[in-house]
């Protein structure tokens, strides 16, 4: 029988299985949901395509969906985030997985096409590429799709634009916007894993360096806080006045990109937008400035312009490219400008992804059970799911919530008790 997967080396499976098991031990919320799914089979016969980062944490989400009775096809949402041993382990278990670290763009979309052959009822995205492919090239699959989930800010922005234009053809839950995802995954996960990726690639000392964080959403807050905690002088670049004010009140320097380009030693973009560091900024940077991205796609950095400015581009060490400019300055780009926390490290810790993927699994169940009454729009994760994930996480940490007394409940719900 022909193999129904595309991975680098199926011989890496055991290594992947060991690492998946290690992550599982740090994902108690997802484990509880998996046990519930195994018992009740809420996804029995449902076909799911997942275009996500192929990591040990994602593997545990896939196993949870399988436990619920789903048929799953998995493809990578980023060519440099795939962990080849994890892909091999899932393939060995019979999952239709199409992911090879470093695959080119043509292969990337070929793998999405292969995964779509499952004829999905539910789509899971990290960047909306499956949704975009179905809507633009494979509308024949739309009739079978109940709905989808999107778990990153960039993808949600895309989908809200589609919904506003009446172009979205099925309902999507913005898993990214759940508080137990956005606040924790983006702030604590991106904050820690971004610096892990940078240090893994460079081994530089952060203390005393000037670190420029471009964007002060939840990801930017996390990165800035962790860099400050390691002794860096942190500059924040923002376009929104309230976020810029918050960054200033949090103790960071706030500048526009032109001024920040002159003083930064390390630049980290976390905006989800295009060309936030451009030619005019590269022209102002110090010799040996380091540039990386932890937003989503590598389009945050105008690398084509940087390449034109360079007289030579060379790989000086793993995941570090040196752009030697015509005036002799050197600018270093990490992980080809792709997500530095995944291209140069392991991504978010399992404790963080535990909550993100718990929301994801419960949202898939919600779509299956409620798709007939959902409009073709982008929805927030239902509040009861978000709260349930938070409560399960607290229980796993041994933390108890305070309970209101009847007197306190009456006081908060009345207007005539006075003070």
Automatic annotation (TrEMBL):
Coiled coil: none annotated. Its EC number is 3.13.1.9. Gene3D superfamilies: Adenosylhomocysteinase-like, NAD(P)-binding Rossmann-like Domain. GO terms for molecular function: adenosylhomocysteinase activity; trialkylsulfonium hydrolase activity. Keywords: Cytoplasm, Hydrolase, NAD, One-carbon metabolism. Catalyzes the hydrolysis of S-inosyl-L-homocysteine (SIH) to L-homocysteine (Hcy) and inosine. Likely functions in a S-adenosyl-L-methionine (SAM) recycling pathway from S-adenosyl-L-homocysteine (SAH) produced from SAM-dependent methylation reactions. Can also catalyze the reverse reaction in vitro, i.e. the synthesis of SIH from Hcy and inosine. This is S-inosyl-L-homocysteine hydrolase. It comes from Methanocella arvoryzae (strain DSM 22066 / NBRC 105507 / MRE50).
């Amino acid at each position: 029988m022909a193999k129904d997967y595309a991975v680098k080396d199926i011989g890496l499976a055991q290594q992947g299985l060991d690492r998946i098991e290690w992550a599982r031990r740090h994902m108690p919320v997802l484990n509880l949901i998996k046990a519930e799914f195994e018992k009740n089979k809420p996804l029995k016969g449902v076909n799911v395509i997942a275009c996500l980062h192929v990591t040990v944490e994602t593997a545990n989400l896939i196993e949870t969906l399988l436990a619920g009775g789903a048929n799953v096809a998995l493809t990578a949402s980023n060519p440099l985030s795939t962990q080849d041993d994890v892909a091999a382990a899932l393939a060995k278990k019979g999952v239709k997985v199409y992911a090879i670290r470093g695959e080119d763009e043509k292969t990337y979309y070929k793998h999405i096409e292969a995964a779509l052959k499952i004829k999905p009822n539910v789509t899971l995205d990290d960047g909306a590429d499956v949704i975009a492919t179905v809507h633009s090239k494979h509308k024949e699959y739309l009739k079978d799709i109940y709905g989808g989930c999107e778990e990153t800010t960039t993808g949600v922005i895309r989908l809200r634009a589609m919904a506003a234009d009446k172009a979205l053809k099925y309902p999507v839950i913005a898993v990214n916007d759940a508080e137990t995802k956005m606040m924790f995954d983006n702030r604590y996960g991106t904050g820690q894993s971004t610096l892990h990726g940078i240090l893994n690639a460079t081994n530089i000392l952060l203390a005393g360096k000037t670190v420029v964080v471009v964007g002060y959403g939840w990801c930017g807050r996390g990165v800035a806080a962790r860099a400050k905690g390691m002794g860096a002088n942190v500059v924040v670049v923002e376009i929104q006045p309230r976020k810029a004010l918050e960054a200033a009140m949090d103790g960071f320097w706030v500048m526009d990109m032109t001024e920040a380009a002159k003083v930064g030693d390390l630049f980290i973009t976390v905006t989800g937008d295009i060309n936030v560091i451009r030619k005019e900024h590269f022209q102002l940077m110090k010799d040996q400035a380091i540039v990386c991205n932890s937003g989503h796609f590598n389009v945050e950095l105008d690398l084509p312009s940087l390449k034109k400015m360079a007289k030579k581009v060379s790989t000086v060490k793993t995941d570090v490219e040196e752009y030697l400019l015509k005036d002799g300055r050197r600018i270093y780009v990490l992980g080809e400008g792709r997500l530095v926390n995944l291209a140069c490290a392991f991504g978010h810790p399992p404790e963080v992804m535990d909550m993100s993927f718990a929301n994801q699994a419960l949202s898939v169940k919600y779509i299956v059970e409620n798709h007939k009454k959902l409009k073709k729009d982008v929805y927030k994760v239902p509040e009861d799911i978000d709260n349930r994930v938070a409560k399960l996480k607290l229980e796993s940490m041994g933390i108890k919530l305070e309970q209101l007394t009847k007197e306190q409940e009456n006081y908060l719900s009345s207007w005539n008790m006075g003070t």
